[in-house]
Amino acid sequence: MEKPSVIRRNRLKRRARRAARRILPFVASLFMATPLATPMGSTQARATTAEHRLPTAAELRASAFSQTTHQLYKELGVEVTGLRYEVFEKALTGYLNLKGDGKLSQDKQLLTVIDFDKPSTEKRLWVLDLAQKQILFHTLVAHGHNSGENVATTFSNENESNMSSLGFYVTQGEYNGKHGRSLKLQGVDEGYNDNAMARSVVMHGADYVSEDFIKQFGRLGRSLGCPALPMDQYAQIIDAVNGGTCLYLNGSDESFNSRYLNKDVAMDTFFREGALI
What we know:
This protein has 277 residues and is of the alpha+beta class. The protein folds into 2 domains: 4-55, no CATH class; 72-273, L,D-transpeptidase catalytic domain-like. Helix content is 38%, strand content 18%. The protein has 8 helices and 8 strands, in the order ααααβββββαβαβαβα. An 8-stranded mixed beta sheet has the order 3-2-1-8-4-5-6-7.
């Protein structure tokens, strides 16, 4: 029978081997990206040795997270549909922050992204299934009447502003209102969209969100601040995203800031759960 000290050493060796297998691919990729050294003097060699240090645990962690995010972006195939990586990265970071806070449904791994930097004549809403790595919907969406004509440039959290509000939302339940079947949205960015419920900013269908409207007027119609959807798709979208999924409204506003864009928290969720979903 092996002595306890021998058993303990063998156990530590196995743990070390497992850790090495996880870390070595990232270390190797970093070294492969570094050009081969040319002959140099001793002083230059000492300087180069200092520069070519092993990456820290924090750097390996950030590298693993970045590589996984890029891989998911590639597997979803959203680049060819016009969703920019920088917008996707922000949306995913917020999704992971909200997931880490326990604010999202455990049953649906869905992320809805709206990019108001794009004109209303382009499809600028995506519903992404992160578990199946699929685009469920890619369609038109209207912005608020006072946010701009074809492009939304101005945003507000104020009641009766008739503007869209940027930031992260968590979908709630459905109800039937003046726009028919609608989906409540809870804004979670304080000062930017947390008045959404009081303003009745909801997802609903609208006749003015269609290709025919664009052909007639050169842009979509506009809402009172709601992300209004095409009549032939809104019901299916509400069915998919209701009940605690993440919605991110992106737009150009230098004053916008969200605590849900904290990458450290996003990485904590990623590494704690071992996956992006």
